[in-house]
């Protein structure tokens, strides 16, 4: 527990600013006494300021600090220094500094200077830790209550309550509520509970949004699954079409190759010319590249194979070097890591070595200290044989055993003396009691006789007065009779007024009305109970109505936003019930139209592609025929010349007529003379004949071309005319298809909104059904009214009931007042009647009174004689008592002195033995733990790690050198590689030039100039077959392209749903986790609320039990049986608060104490409440300060308060750090406390000659 040690004050209020006043706080009680205005309360203010940082009320502007004008200074610095023991056992020091400065205009300004919170010891903590905890006032204001183990509210309102605020338990309700909330820390927990509830509310709203998002993702996932299924079907169709397409493609390509082979056989010479031209250009390019490369070349020796081998292995070599570099780097890193680890271990071992050396030195010092203690103790207690050095372990153990025996003998001697003193005291008490009993008996008899004499004298005096007064009894009787008649008249008049007022009838009416209102209240309470039991259903009803309102607003908002688009796409107004069905119907129709358009567009594209393919084929055939026609020209001219010459018998060139002979010569000469001349020409003409015969096919083809080329041209023109029509149709269909797709996309987006509307509409219908069911359930249960409505009706009924009770109470009060007046008059009349009888009796008993006076005087005479006799016996009985007491004091002082000497010797032996035992235990623990062996092991490991560090350093340096050489070789590899590549390139270019030249020379240009054989007849058939196969191939390709475009469109559509499965799964997990988190938050809120309620109830019960116990023990009056704090819960289960009031009980009836009790009762109640609160909320802090607790208390209650405080002190003085601080100006109260042996010293605060407050410690007694 926390406790206060010392308080130093300088410059606070009336305390001097030049010197420090110190007060030490005792346990269990510290009493501070002084006159009013001496500065007692300033001590409480300083304690409160030091612990909480709060200055006393009404001290703004420097009133808390010593006035600079009184000190004749421009600036006064003040300081409050408090040393206390924290709840954790540490001794702390808190220092707060203030200064007040006087300005030129006379105004004062106060500043808070730097403050300090630190450990109280000079070293600032063990092992060199920092001693100062904080120098900031805000941190100190938070940290000091934490160190004291209580909240700041408990320090301000319970422990260090200012005298001006001492009546706060009986203050107005708002102030009382705030203070109790601070003490119970209700605000902190209420804020935590509100935060949890607000967080859960936000998370519920977020969960609702997340669920909506999950529904949207679910719809998107379904859409994506539908698209994926459609895509899968299309992919299957595409796979089948691709197989068919590939087969047709292979057939077509084989046929094209075959036809191309036929074509190439006739046009190969053109390829030869082109190839020779390309080779010539290639040779020039090679030469130019060779020249450019040789400009920056450094030629290398060696064959091409050697250079290629070098080139081939260069990268592998560099790669091996880089791999080697990485390997060396990893080795170097491993070595450096080992080196770092070894150095860290070496540092740790060095630290351990230092610790072991320090422990070894400490062990040696402890052994020396132990030997010094043994020599000191042996010399002190005259034990011989231990003044040598060094002492062995066995010698030390023997000495400790010997010292223990000596201590045991000393304890026995002390116990014997104590028993002897106790026996002597018991004998004295027996004898003293016997003698005192005899003396008390005589004194009691004397006191009885004395009281009897006094009583008889009073009776004689009174009887003489009665005898003297009996002479005036006749006149008094006449007066009394007249008064009796007047009282009888008043009684009669009052009874008539009571009968006229008819109080009983009015009260009966009020009672009937009260019963009816009570019955109504019971009905409302029952209805409230049922309604409270149905709170969950009603809460669900309110929640459903709110949700219905939100859903309806959401539907309306979506319809307002999308109504124009809906009318455009559907052609009618959007209705929430049919919106989704209408869109699905229109979407299905549009989707079918889109599919039809896609088919039409695919067919149009296919037709267009077929037409384009056919047109391309026709143009290619036409071009081929034109090329063939060019090759057949010589054959046609020759044939034309021959035919013209044979028919017209003239030369077609010169138009010269030929006769038969010339014609024969023209055709063929066969004369012997010409044979020799034409023999040489024959060979040439035979060769020419063979060449011309090879042109026969071309001649045939030429005849065909004359008929086929016009047909082909006509077909090309026809296809060219059809092509724009097909293109326009395809574009129109594509445009319609795109428009339809845009409409479908807009409709798809609108369908999502329609799905939200439909789902929300279904939610609205479901909520309406649920609301009707809940309302029907609540109606069946009895009422549809809410708890608030019933509570308002109940409050109204209670108000009427209270008003009726007030009226009934007023009637009863008025009736009781009048009846009381009647009874008063009757009592007066009865008293007068008794007085009348008494006066008559006294007149009759006058002579009897005179005889009684004479008898009483004789009794007084005999009693006085007996008193004198008893006085002599009392003097004789007092002598042996005084003699016995004197003998007892002499012997008791002697025994006490011997006992004190024995106890002092025992204490000295105990202290020496404890010091020696503590030192010897530390020595033995060092030997038992073998700490000296650990030092040697540590030194061996340090040497081992030093050798390892040196070895690792050498290995690391060697690895760095190897890495440097490898890096140098890798860095210079680029230039070598470039030159090697250039040499290989030059040699390759030379070879390419030579090869190109050889290839050019290899072509036979004369042979290439000759025409190739004419195509076989089957070329046209194969060409036609190629065209048909191409058309079929193109048709399948168009279908395949259409399907792939659909797949592409589906892929584009699926891009909108990318990662939809993952998003849906993540969202589902998120929703489930959020739902679970919300449920946990609800459980946490309920658990916290329940814990707060339980804590509050337990604390209130604990506080009220303590208050009841202290009140019954302290309060001496009979008008109040007890007091307690009543806490009324408000706000319902969702936001519960408490209103507090202090009530007093009398005969099981509770009444508010505020405004109904005296000043003394208020003071006593406030003290008891603070004691109870300190007992309950200050379990870690046993401090409580009471400032002027006897104010407004009478003598009996002051004595009772002192007795109660003494009981509390005696009960708790054995508790750790219990401290009660009492400030009072009541010397009698101080004396009561001092006589109870609860304190030895007290502090007195007074003013010196300079009117400065000073604190002095005084011994009581």
From TrEMBL:
UniProt keywords, alphabetically: Chromosome, Coiled coil, DNA damage, DNA repair, Hydrolase, Metal-binding, Nucleus, Zinc
Compartments in which it is found: Chromosome; Nucleus
All copies of domain Rad50/SbcC-type AAA, residue ranges: 6-226
GO CC annotation: condensed nuclear chromosome; Mre11 complex
A GO term for molecular function: double-stranded telomeric DNA binding
Cofactor: Zn(2+)
Reaction catalysed by this enzyme: ATP + H2O = ADP + phosphate + H(+)
GO biological process: chromosome organization involved in meiotic cell cycle; double-strand break repair; telomere maintenance via recombination; telomere maintenance via telomerase
Pfam family, one: SbcC_Walker_B
UniProt feature coiled coil, ranges: 207-303, 407-534, 580-628, 716-784, 839-1006
Family, similarity comment: Belongs to the SMC family. RAD50 subfamily.
Listed PANTHER family: DNA REPAIR PROTEIN RAD50, RAD50
Protein name, per record: DNA repair protein RAD50
The species this protein was found in: Ceriporiopsis subvermispora (strain B)
Top-level taxonomy: Eukaryota, Fungi, Dikarya, Basidiomycota, Agaricomycotina
């Amino acid at each position: 527990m926390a406790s206060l040690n010392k308080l130093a004050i300088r410059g606070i209020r009336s305390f001097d600013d030049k010197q420090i006043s110190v007060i030490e706080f005792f346990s269990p009680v510290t009493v501070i006494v002084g006159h009013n205005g001496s500065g007692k309360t300033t001590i409480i203010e300083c304690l409160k300021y030091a612990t909480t940082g709060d200055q006393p009320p009404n001290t703004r502007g420097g009133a808390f600090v010593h006035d600079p004008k009184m000190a004749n200074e421009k600036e006064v610095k003040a300081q409050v220094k408090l040393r206390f023991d924290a709840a954790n056992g540490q001794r702390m020091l808190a220092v707060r500094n203030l200064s007040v400065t006087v300005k030129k205009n006379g105004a004062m300004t106060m500043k808070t200077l730097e403050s300090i919170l630190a450990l109280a010891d000079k070293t600032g903590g063990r092992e060199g830790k920092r001693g100062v905890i904080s120098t900031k006032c805000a941190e100190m204001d938070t940290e000091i209550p934490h160190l004291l183990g209580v909240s700041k509210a408990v320090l301000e309102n319970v422990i260090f309550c200012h005298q001006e605020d001492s009546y706060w338990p009986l203050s107005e309700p708002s102030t009382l509520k705030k203070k109790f909330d601070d003490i119970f820390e209700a605000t902190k927990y209420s804020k935590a509970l509100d935060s949890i509830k607000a967080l859960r509310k936000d998370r519920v709203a977020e969960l609702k949004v997340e669920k909506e998002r999950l529904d949207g993702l679910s719809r998107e996932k379904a859409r994506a699954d539908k698209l994926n299924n459609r895509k899968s079907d299309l992919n299957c169709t595409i796979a089948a079409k691709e197989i068919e397409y590939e087969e047709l493609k292979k057939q077509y390509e084989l046929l094209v190759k075959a036809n191309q082979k036929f074509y190439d056989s006739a046009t190969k010479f053109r390829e030869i010319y082109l190839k020779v031209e390309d080779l010539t250009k290639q040779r020039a390019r090679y030469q130019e590249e060779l020249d450019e490369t040789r400009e920056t070349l450094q030629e290398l020796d060696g064959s091409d194979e050697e250079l290629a081998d070098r080139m081939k292995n260069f990268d592998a070599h560099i790669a091996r070097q880089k791999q080697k570099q990485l390997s060396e780097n990893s080795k170097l890193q491993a070595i450096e890591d080992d080196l770092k680890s070894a150095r860290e271990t070496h540092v740790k071992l060095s630290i351990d070595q230092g610790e072991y050396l320090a422990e070894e030195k400490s062990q040696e010092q402890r052994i020396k200290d132990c030997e010094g203690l043994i020599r000191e103790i042996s010399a002190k207690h005259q034990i011989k044989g231990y003044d040598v050095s060094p002492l062995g372990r066995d010698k030390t153990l023997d000495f400790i055993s010997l010292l223990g025996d000596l201590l045991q003998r000393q304890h026995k001697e002390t116990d014997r003396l104590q028993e002897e003193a106790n026996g002597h005291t018991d004998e004295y008490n027996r004898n003293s009691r016997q003698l005192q009993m005899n003396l008390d008996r005589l004194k009691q008899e004397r006191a009885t006789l004395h009281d009897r004499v006094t009583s008889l004298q009073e009776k004689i005096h009174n009887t003489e007065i009665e005898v003297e007064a009996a002479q005036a009894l006749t006149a008094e009787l006449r007066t009394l009779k007249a008064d009796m008649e007047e009282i009888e008249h008043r009684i009669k008049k009052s009874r008539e007024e009571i009968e006229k007022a008819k109080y009983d009838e009015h009260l009966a009416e009020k009672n009937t009305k009260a019963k009816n209102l009570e019955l109504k209240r019971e009905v409302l309470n029952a209805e409230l109970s049922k309604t409270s039991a149905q709170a969950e259903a009603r809460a669900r009803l309110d929640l459903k109505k709110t949700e219905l309102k939100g859903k309806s607003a959401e539907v309306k908002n979506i319809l307002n936003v999308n109504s124009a688009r809906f009318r455009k796409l559907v052609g009618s107004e959007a209705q929430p019930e049919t919106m989704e069905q209408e869109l699905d119907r229109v979407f299905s129709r549009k989707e079918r139209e889109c599919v039809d358009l896609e088919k039409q567009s695919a067919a149009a594209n296919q037709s267009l592609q077929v037409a384009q393919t056919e047109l391309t084929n026709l143009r290619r055939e036409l071009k081929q025929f034109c090329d063939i026609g060019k090759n057949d020209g010589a054959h046609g001219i020759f044939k034309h010349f021959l035919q013209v010459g044979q028919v017209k018998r003239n030369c077609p060139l010169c138009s010269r007529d030929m006769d038969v002979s010339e014609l024969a010569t023209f055709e063929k000469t066969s004369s012997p003379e010409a044979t020799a001349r034409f023999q040489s020409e024959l060979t040439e003409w035979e060769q020419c004949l063979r060449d011309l015969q090879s042109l026969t096919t071309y001649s045939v083809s030429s005849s065909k071309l004359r008929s086929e080329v016009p047909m082909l041209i006509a077909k090309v023109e026809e296809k060219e005319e059809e092509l724009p029509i097909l293109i326009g149709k395809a574009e129109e269909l594509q445009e319609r298809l795109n428009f339809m797709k845009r409409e479908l996309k807009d409709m798809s987006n609108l369908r999502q909104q329609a799905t939200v509307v439909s789902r929300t509409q279904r939610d609205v219908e479901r909520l309406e059904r649920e609301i009707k069911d809940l309302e029907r359930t609540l109606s069946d249960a009895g009422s549809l009214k809410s708890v608030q409505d019933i509570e308002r009706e109940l409050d109204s009924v209670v108000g009427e009931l209270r008003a009726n009770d007030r009226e009934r109470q007023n009637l009863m009060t008025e009736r009781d007042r009048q009846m009381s007046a009647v009874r008063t008059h009757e009592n007066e009349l009865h008293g007068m009647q008794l007085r009348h009888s008494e006066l008559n009796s006294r007149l009759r008993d006058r002579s009897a009174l005179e005889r009684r006076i004479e008898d009483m005087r004789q009794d007084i005479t005999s009693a006085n004689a007996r008193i004198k006799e008893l006085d002599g016996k009392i003097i004789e009985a007092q002598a042996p008592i005084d003699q016995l007491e004197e003998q007892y004091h002499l012997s008791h002082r002697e025994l006490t002195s011997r006992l004190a000497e024995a106890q002092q010797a025992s204490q000295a032996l105990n202290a020496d033995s404890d010091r020696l035992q503590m030192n010897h235990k530390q020595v033995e623990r060092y030997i038992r733990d073998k700490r000296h062996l650990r030092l040697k092991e540590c030194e061996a490991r340090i040497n081992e790690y030093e050798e390892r560090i040196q070895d690792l350093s050498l290995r690391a340096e060697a690895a760095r050198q190897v890495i440097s050489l490898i890096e140098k070789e890798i860095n210079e590899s680029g230039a070598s590689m470039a030159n090697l590549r250039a040499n290989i390139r030059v040699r390759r270019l030379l070879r390419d030039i030579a090869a190109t030249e050889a290839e050019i020379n290899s072509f036979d240009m004369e042979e290439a100039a000759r025409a190739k054989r004419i195509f076989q007849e089957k070329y046209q058939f194969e060409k036609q077959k190629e065209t048909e196969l191409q058309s079929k191939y193109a048709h399948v390709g168009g279908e395949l392209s259409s399907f792939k475009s659909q797949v592409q469109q589906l892929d584009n559509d699926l891009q909108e749903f990318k990662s939809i499965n993952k998003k849906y799964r993540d969202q589902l997990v998120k929703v489930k986790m959020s739902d679970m988190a919300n449920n946990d938050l609800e459980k946490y809120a309920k658990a916290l609320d329940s814990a707060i309620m339980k804590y509050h109830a337990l604390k209130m019960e604990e506080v009220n039990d303590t208050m009841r116990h202290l009140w019954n023990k302290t309060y001496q009056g009979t008008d109040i049986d007890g007091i307690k704090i009543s806490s009324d819960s408000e706000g319902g289960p969702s936001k519960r608060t408490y209103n507090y009031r202090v009530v007093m009980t009398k005969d099981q009836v509770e009444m508010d104490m505020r405004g109904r009790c005296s000043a003394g009762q208020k003071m006593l109640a406030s003290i008891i409440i603070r004691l109870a609160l300190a007992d309950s909320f200050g379990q870690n802090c046993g401090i409580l300060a009471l400032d002027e607790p006897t104010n407004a208390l009478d003598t009996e209650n002051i004595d009772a308060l002192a007795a109660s405080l003494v009981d509390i002190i005696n009960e708790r003085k054995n508790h750790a750090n219990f401290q009660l601080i009492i400030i009072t100006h009541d010397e009698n109260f101080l004396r009561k406390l001092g006589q109870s042996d609860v304190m030895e010293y007290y502090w007195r605060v007074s003013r010196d000659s300079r009117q400065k407050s000073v604190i002095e410690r005084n011994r009581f007694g």
